[in-house]
Amino acid sequence: MRRRAGRFGTALLFGLLLLSLPVCGGKKETVRREPAPPAPAGPRVAVAPMENRSNDLDASEIVRGAFVEELLRRGWNVMPVEESDRKLRERLGITYGGQLGSTPPADVCRSLEARGVFYGVVQEWNKTTAGIYNHVTVTAEFRLYGDSGDSLWEGRDTQQKTMIPQGGRDIGAQVIVHALGNLLLNPMTPYGRAVGRNIAAKLPSGLAGLREPGTPDGTGGNR
């Protein structure tokens, strides 16, 4: 009995030793970490509610959210949208982008206590379904106004895609998957986010890098 117990203990110890050894020949899993965004720098700017010319109430916030995320990733000093929306609502009575035209941009900047403000418009947000074919088009633009009221920059982007089942024996399953996706998810979200990110990516890194009209060196308008 003692001999069996001794053999069992030796085998158990040997097994634990094997488990503790590194596995040879295996592939090391590397975890890719996204680099941390740069610390916000430069004059503070705000992104006002967008004018939404589509029938989807979520369109403007999908595009604006991605636009703000990309600005922050590029080091822009962006006011939280909750703060800027609250100030616009309480101080100017502005609750959606279509009302911005009634107030000069300089007054909007002053009310926001910001050196610049982005106005945006969702111009197109269409999804056309014809049988098993889906076609998506998203177009938006942003314009940046300085606290002087002058337009400093503008950018625009369009994303389009036609989705067609690949065919073959599983075409029925593909159609069902597309239909369920349309019911459960907003199929426009990836395209709206891509538009917001692409427009922000066209900006220089910070308000100080923008040239205001009438200032050849690009610094006259940034006090």
Q: Unreliable runs, pLDDT <50, ≥5 residues?
A: 8-24, 171-177, 179-185, 212-223
Q: What is the alpha-carbon Rg in Å? A: 27 Å
Helix-and-strand structural type: alpha/beta
* Shape call: globular
At the third CATH level, what is the topology name of one domain?
Rossmann fold
Describe the structure.
The protein is α/β, with parallel strands linked by helices and 223 residues long. It has a domain at 38-126 and 138-158 and 189-209: Rossmann fold (3-Layer(aba) Sandwich). It has six helices and six strands; from the N terminus they run αββαβααβββαα. α2 packs parallel to α6 (189-201). The chain is globular, with a radius of gyration of 27 Å. The N and C termini lie far apart (91 Å). Residues 8-24, 171-177, 179-185 and 212-223 have low confidence and may be disordered.
Concise summary:
By secondary structure, this protein is α/β, with parallel strands linked by helices. Helix content is 36%, strand content 24%.
List the helices and strands and how they pair.
Layout: H1 2-20, E1 41-47, E2 51-52, H2 59-73, E3 76-78, H3 81-92, H4 105-112, E4 116-130, E5 133-146, E6 151-163, H5 171-184, H6 189-201
Parallel strand pairs: 1-3, 1-4, 2-4
Antiparallel strand pairs: 4-5, 5-6
Which characteristics define this entry?
223 residues, alpha/beta, Rossmann fold, 6-stranded mixed β-sheet, 6 helices, 6 strands
